[in-house]
């Protein structure tokens, strides 16, 4: 992993802001004029394809997101990181609960971060897959995911001991 500490810290703060519903953290990592692009290949979740500006990005990725989801765990796969002084790319996986339906959501995709003087100028999020599992699988999945290194984890370590219901992650996180 050739990841600068500044990039790693910015991504970690973003994950904390999103997963823990802390919108105030976003202004420390995104430029006021930042842009967000979302590419969603799943029918089970939706986001605007383009969002401009810190406030709108914060609403989409933190405030609105946390109205729908809780128990959010987002992981960046350390063995997938490609980084230089201006950008960082990595695979991610997420486990969370849909508040309305009580189902467990499991998904994965890619992040592409573009930085300018340590601040995020542009973020592209690809959601490759997002599946909904029955609530009865919740205990097994959250018991497993709670033991993982968070938010940075090697894909092999992340997948170790994964419940069979989420085995679809294996091929895509390690390729």
Written account of the structure:
28% of the residues lie in helices and 38% in strands. The longest helix has 15 residues, at 5-19. It is built from five helices and eight strands. Strand 6 and strand 7 form a beta hairpin. It is globular. Strands 1, 2, 3, 4, 5, 6, 7 and 8 form an eight-stranded mixed sheet that branches.
Overall mean confidence score, pLDDT: 93
| Contiguous helical run count | 5
Secondary-structure element series: HEEHEEEEEHEHH
Which segments are poorly predicted (pLDDT under 50) over 5 or more consecutive residues?
none
- Give the C-alpha Rg: 15 Å
Q: What is the total tally of β strands?
A: 8
Assess the beta-strand content as a share of residues. 35-45%
Identify the overall geometry. globular
Which structural class fits the helix and strand makeup? Answer: alpha+beta
Q: What oligomeric arrangement do these chains adopt?
A: single chain
Q: What's the N-to-C terminus distance?
A: 16 Å
Helix content: 25-40%
Major sheet: 8 strands, mixed
What is the secondary structure topology, with strand pairs?
Layout (H helix, E strand, L loop, with lengths): L4 H15 L10 E11 L9 E3 L1 H15 E9 L4 E2 L3 E12 L5 E13 L2 E15 L4 H8 L6 E2 L1 H5 L9 H6 L1
């Amino acid at each position: 992993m050739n990841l600068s500490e500044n990039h790693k810290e910015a991504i970690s703060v973003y994950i904390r802001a999103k997963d823990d519903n802390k919108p105030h953290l976003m202004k420390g990592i995104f430029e006021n004029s930042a842009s967000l692009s979302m590419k969603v290949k799943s029918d089970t979740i939706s986001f605007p394809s383009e969002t401009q500006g810190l406030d709108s990005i914060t609403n989409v990725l933190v405030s609105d997101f946390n109205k729908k989801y809780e128990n959010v765990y987002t992981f960046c796969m350390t063995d997938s990181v490609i980084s230089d002084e201006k950008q960082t790319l990595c695979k991610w996986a997420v486990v969370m609960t849909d508040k309305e339906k009580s189902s467990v959501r499991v998904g994965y995709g890619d992040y592409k971060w573009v930085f300018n003087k340590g601040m995020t100028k542009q973020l592209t999020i690809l959601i490759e897959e997002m599946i909904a599992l029955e609530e009865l699988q919740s205990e097994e999945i959250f018991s497993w995911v709670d033991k993982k290194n968070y938010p940075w984890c090697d894909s092999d370590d992340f997948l170790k001991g994964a419940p069979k219901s989420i085995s679809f992650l294996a091929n895509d996180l390690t390729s």
